[in-house]
Amino acid sequence: MINHKGISTRCVWAGEEDRVAGAPTQVPVVHSVAFGYRDVEHWRDAALGRACGHIYGRNTNPTVSALEEKVRLLENAEAATSAATGMAAISSVLFALLSPGDRVVSVKDTYGGTNVVFREFLSRFGIHSTLCDTTDHESIEAEIAKGCKALYLESPTNPTIKVVDIGRLAAAGRSSGALVVVDNTFATPVNQNPLELGAHLVVHSATKYLSGHADALGGLICGDKELVEQVYHYREINGTALDPMSAYLILRGIKTLSLRIERQNDSALKIAQFLEGRPEIGRVFYPGLASDPGHAIAKRQMRGFGGMLSFKLQEDSLEAVSRFLPALKLAHMAANLGSVETIAGPPATTSHVECTAEERAAMGVPEGLVRYSVGVEDAQDLMDDLAQALEAG
Ligand SMILES: *Cc1c(COP(=O)(O)O)cnc(C)c1O
What we know:
Layout: H1 7-13, H2 40-47, H3 62-74, E1 79-83, H4 86-97, E2 103-107, H5 112-121, E3 128-132, H6 137-145, E4 150-154, H7 166-175, E5 179-183, H8 188-191, E6 201-205, E7 219-223, H9 225-238, H10 244-254, H11 257-276, E8 281-285, H12 295-301, E9 308-313, H13 318-324, E10 332-333, E11 343-345, H14 357-362, E12 369-373, H15 379-392
Parallel strand pairs: 2-3, 2-4, 4-5, 5-6, 10-11
Antiparallel strand pairs: 1-7, 6-7, 8-9, 9-12, 11-12
Helix pairs in contact: 3-10, 4-9, 6-7
The protein binds pyridoxal-5'-phosphate.
The site of pyridoxal-5'-phosphate (PLP) has 15 residues, from α4.
């Protein structure tokens, strides 16, 4: 029933509807490694999945299950499971579903860690990855048509906020028999639902917007039941379980997800428009701007353009960024994103820390780029802060 309700109602209630009289109104944090049984037959049935009941914390936990159910309902998925971090979720998907000899088609602008899994780890197991130019849809379709086991996408991307046409590429992937996986971390289920656009699986770094307070690491995987079960089985054995305290913090964070994203969508657009008019700025990257190359696709597939933007200083150098960033008073200079506080940083210390300056240039990531994760502060205060920092530089 909850899935017929609005997104804000679902953020608050999904996965938490079954309240017993006198029970806590909030999901309890269950710090127990194991769950006990007096009846061996019941224990065995629970262990084999024939009866309800948790067995061991590396497999399932009641707090973690409540979070999985909430995210499942927000993504309108058949099933959901979780992992200790976003990267644990992503590598569990890839290692659970791919085998030696398989081929993956993806894009160059995936999250840095994901890129390393493709280039460094999957290749050691004889799994070849073809990483295409992120916005060249024809060449991605051509690579898909050559045959692949999985199509792995991310939209919008990091740090130049490129937009990929998920519906178009998912259709191409499905018609070639590929599993379609989408990292929905930047958009969140408030702005975009990749399963409705044709993906089989959605992954999230819950560390970012879902948690929203930069105080917990976590990852979520949702989608087709059969695939989620395979990923769950790999994750339980590989041992990257999400811990119950983090699950609780993420679950509490999601209650305000829709409020936060609404504010961040609005503020990011205002700030992007403000920066576009400033002489100190070379270029603004934000799909909400009519001038942005991803605008038309984003308008079709997203309900809001998100809280992430980036901009290139007129003086395109890391030195200029190094002078500008410390002048910001209302931003943490840090590697994460998606929090209630504004966060800013250069790709050289955040998304593209593993690359050399030459590699960043080849990937189209300018040295004078600032990635700016808009928080929930007053937009006017953020614009005033950006203005004084630009004037100081
Ligand atoms: C941060 C991030 C990840 C990795 O998440 P962790 O929780 O840090 O492991 C994956 N994808 C995207 C898009 C991210 O921003």
